[in-house]
Structure formats: C-alpha cells, structure tokens
Amino acid sequence: MSAAVAAAKAEFAARSGLLTGTLSLRAADGVESSSLPALLGAFHRLCPGVTLHLVEGASAGLGRPR
C-alpha cells in the first residue's frame, strides 16, 4: 500500500467519529467586531462536519424563538 493511500485511509478513519449536522446561532447586530468570528472559526476547525448558520438581528428579538 502506498504512503498516500495509507494516509488517506488514516484520515477517513479519524474523521469517522466526527460530529455532523447544523448549528444555528442568533446574535445581536455588530458581532462581526467581537470575538465571535474567532470562536466560530475555532469551532469549525474542531468540528469540520458541523455546518454553522449565524443569523444577526436586533438584540431585542434574540430571546424569541423562531
């Protein structure tokens, strides 16, 4: 078995236990200048199988479910 094939098999085996799905978040307007982008980036690196969906809106409406 070639090194490339072995590496590909090892990567797929490692990824088989990854979380998958969608994480939807609501945040107040203006979060683009906060630490949220860095936190979401770190989350995505740890859980690449999870799709992140961020909705920004006025903070007054954040407590109401959609």
Automatic annotation (TrEMBL):
Q: Which domain of life is it from?
A: Bacteria
State the SUPFAM superfamilies in the record.
Answer: Periplasmic binding protein-like II (SSF53850)
Record's protein name: LysR family transcriptional regulator
**Could you read off the lineage of the organism from its UniProt record?**
Bacteria, Bacillati, Actinomycetota, Actinomycetes, Kitasatosporales
